[in-house]
From TrEMBL:
Gene3D superfamilies: NAD(P)-binding Rossmann-like Domain. One of its GO terms (molecular function) is oxidoreductase activity. Belongs to the short-chain dehydrogenases/reductases (SDR) family. This is SDR family NAD(P)-dependent oxidoreductase. SUPFAM superfamilies: NAD(P)-binding Rossmann-fold domains (SSF51735). It comes from Defluviicoccus vanus. It holds the Pfam family adh_short.
Amino acid sequence: MDVKGLAAIVTGAGSGLGEITARALAAAGAKVAVFDLAEEAANRVASEIGGVACICDVSNAESAEAAVAKAKAAHGAARIVVQCAGIAPPAKIVGRKGPHSLDLYSKVVGINLVGTFNIMRLTAADMLALDPVGDTQERGVIINTASIAAFEGQVGQAAYASSKAGVVGLTLPSAREFAPAGVRVFCIAPGIFKTPMMAGLPEETQKTLGAEVPFPSRLGNPQEYAKLALAIIDNPYLNGEVVRCDGALRMRG
């Protein structure tokens, strides 16, 4: 699918992987709606790429519905959706202060998994009503973001890893459901990338983490995630799969 002129939604687009992906889509000619809970960040990115800022709590039905409606009013129904919104607070199931907070666990699952499903259900409903485009007769593509923690979650990642495993589990059934209408669903499982959260760590810590990656032995560059997302959008035969983008890293417990 050629992104030029098409409406796109990117969640978590105020920073990190989402911001770089939103910029890449805009540079390729897409009309981008920048979804983020941080109003200042969303406005900044949207103004710089000529998009529209949509302040959105992906885990909340009303907030997501309003954001999708605003994006649709500005650009038309989205044919491209890339979901990068997520949080990863570390916490052991049983730590020094006692059991894991159930509220924190619910919050992580609510944003990472329920939020992904929430945006997917709303945008897919719009996509299914669109006319097919191009030689492949596609109506749209949805790219969700999991993590390699879905497969090799480390100690302290119980909430994050299980939420991302849920995102992996959404991939095939949704792809199968939407396939007859020409809407694809794909999932990227990134390794450790140099996002704002990671950039806040000491430089030596970042080098140590990067050295664990077999090749290239460094943290991932957000542009590499964005390149993969655009390649998935471009290739109509990529559907219903989870692809790791991690330099062959397998995380230790």
